Amino acid sequence: MTDKLKQLASKLGVADSFSDAGMVRKTYNIKPETIRFFVEALGYHCGTDEEIESSLQKYEDRRWCEVLSPIYVGKQTDIGFDVVLPKGQKIDRIVIKDSHHRQQNIRIEHNAAPEHYCLGDKELTKEYYAVTEALDPGYYELDVHVGSKNYKSRLAVAPERCYEAPGMERKLWGYAVQLYAVKSKRNWGVGDFTDLEELVRICARCGADIIGLNPLNVLCHDFPENASPYQSISRLFLNPIYIDIEKVPEFDAADKQMIEGLLAEVRGSELIQYGKVYPLKAKMLEKCFKTFKDKGSPERKKAFEKFCEDQGEELDKLALFQTLYETESPKVWGGWRAWPEEYHSPQSYGIVAYRAGHQDRIEFFKFMQFEAARQFDEAGKLAKDLGLKIGFYRDLAVGVGKDSAEFWGNPGLFIRDVGAGAPPDAFFPGGQRWGLGAFSPTMLKELRYEPFIKILRANMKNAGALRMDHVMSLMRLYVLPDNGEEGTYIYYNFEDMLNIVALESYLNKCVIVGESIGNVPEGFVDTLKERNIHSLSVLWSERANAGWGGFLAPYDYPPHAFASVGTHDMPPLKMWWFGYDIEEAAKLGQIASEGEKANAYHKREADRGMLLSSLDAAGVWPEDRPRSGNFIYGEKYPEGIEEAVHRYIARSASKVVLVQLEDFLQVEKQQNLPGTDRDKHPNWRLKLPLDLEDLESSSAYLRNITAIKKER
Predict the structure, then answer these.
(1) For residues 512 and 471, what is the distance between their CA atoms, to the nearest angstrom?
(2) CB crowding 249-266: b at 16 or more within 10 Å, else e
(3) Which pLDDT score, from 0 to 100, does residue 92 have?
(4) Distance between CA 89 and CA 147 in Å, rounded?
């Protein structure tokens, strides 16, 4: 690789080497052709030495082509901006206005010597300015007046630290729930927002203050079996499958009589039947929409109009995309890229005529979002009214599929012909290919980070806390060519991204939690802690010697964390105890040989012994169910072990503890098995084994709650 190509890649944030997070750490030097691919994908030609020189010049010229950058992001104590003008021109006036367009009377001073640059035959000067008085956190308009011209930009002023909820000075606890998996006697075969309201009431009755939720974002309307909550078509809107149809004001109870048999079937199945549940709900919502159009109350119609106005262009793009997908997917296979060219973006030439011919269907998709938002808002209001200190803890996926409304609606925002993934680590030695779109760092800033800001706000709605999946993407994201095997990291403006997160956390009163499992850069977690972004601590990972040693004592858990026994990607406690996950992995070829399988079982025997020893040392066994044997060969499930484990994790120093009902109820199957599709494992389909109405009378529930409340 030439030095010039390496220099260009570095300026664009394309890594020419990286180290993985495998058990034996390995460094990868990226091939020049791979570097060239990514540099080209970011809009800079680099096929020859001359093109590289030209691209380097283009990069250097970029900032000098505009008077102001699109946005300036900084902390309250360090906010500034620069202004580029032809040599000799003077600024007449600088005005800063708040979000209400009120002028701010603040001091602005030069804070560095000017720079000079020649762009073609133009001589330019760049002046640097600092705001020398503290501004309240928020977004401000920056107006620079030069003669008769007025140049505009934006200041994003962030607090030093992310928001901390009142009440977090004491130890809190709550549930981690996959909402779709909640089983009840009244829902239509999948958990819904009414079930969520009941979970809120259960929390209030037992002293819990938080409900962790899977991503609730909208999935593909036409292929409901594509059920992964981490593969949404837009992170801005909700999945209508969570609507309680019987609570829709236009629902006619007489319609339910015709589907009682189907409801009994989908309620009674062990797995969620998305291919039956979602079309059934969509059909009923179509009837409700027709009633709404014909007979809806003026108040409700006015609320719908306001919702559509507030959600604006983004809702319009989603509804248009869903309508197009519905009409085009039966004709061609391959997603929106296979559609006729006139439909390839919201700005395409055929869209105006298409919209005119499908206005009613577009409105229907908006109506589904309107009702989903209304019901979710009611659940959020209930959580506040009942005094949950955090309430909903939502989950923000790291990306969206490339066959999505988000990707289709913002064609220049994503790096072309690449997908996000992860390099090899201890859990996935072969790495991962997620196929998610990756933001272009340059375009993200050109758009004033607005797409990212909108996503944060949408997922902070009704949330007291937000989990950011793969939070390392604030700094860098591993990407692979769509038609290639070698990937590398693309770097973002980490300081800007962190400040935007802190600012939105402050404005939306939302605690931030960062999921940082995998290839974590050195010092990254410490930086998050400085900005008050909480980490995640999982019992199975909080161990000595990279997972081979003993379990950490509760007082050794990081205080600045949300702790849990496991996650949706890990086996529940009983499954782990018996090693059913090892058997499953072997059956699916994830364990390559009988020897490896035997080694995994031997390690699990050792792990069981270490867990029992840790529980003994902590003295957390139920008094009426003391440990009665070693059980290290998995010959029996120790009575009371789930209570002991929950008391152990509840005793941890971490500020928040989340428990899973799967562990309470001794579930023996895993909700999601990473690296598999539904043809191999029923990912995202497993229901809880107990109806919600029966939960609080369950002895398993009562015993585990008692154990937790001894420590929290």
Answers:
(1) 10
(2) ebbeeeeeeebeeebeeb
(3) 95
(4) 9
